[in-house]
């Protein structure tokens, strides 16, 4: 029996039938994936399962992943999505749930997190209670850069409004030790979201909003690789950042 697949389905609260519909296969096929030890689905079906469950291929079918393992500097690239909106919400949820040491959200507004992740604020408070460092890096809603970007985006729900929604949500959880927020303009066109040794990176394109940005899922495998370079970028922005809540800038 594929215990890893069965466990991932339980964690995602997904039945055999739901997974079959999501992957475009018969329910009996899903049953065989679970029951028959050593059975490996076709690549396109493995990828569909991973997206549906928010799990990695190396966890569900390690033998298949080992055959395709990369050894060059691009081995830290787990997945690529042409649009952030194409990155499954289940992947974000899985990365948040598994993080134990650090959660850093360096998006210019971070607005979509509350929109797409159920009870996101509660999850952040729970993570902080468990000892995970939780940080938010935001753009200043009143800055000239924000106003300039609003002109580029030219959408009804303005950048400054989205930032202020995030600030209002953060206000609800700011009393929880371990949660901190700072303003920075250095990530106006590059969002970096870190979950321990996993990371989602979205370079923003001109005249595009965040959900239209190409997106990379990275995992740290080496020193001074892609992961470490983006992580260093965020740490420098954090060091230079201005506290959102005055008197709380020592975190």
From TrEMBL:
Name of this chain's protein: Transcriptional regulator
DUF5919 domain: residues covered: 117-244
Molecular function per GO: DNA binding
Organism: Streptomyces violaceusniger
Cited Pfam families: DUF5919
Entry-linked Gene3D superfamilies: lambda repressor-like DNA-binding domains
InterPro entries according to UniProt: Cro/C1-type_HTH, DUF5919, Lambda_DNA-bd_dom_sf
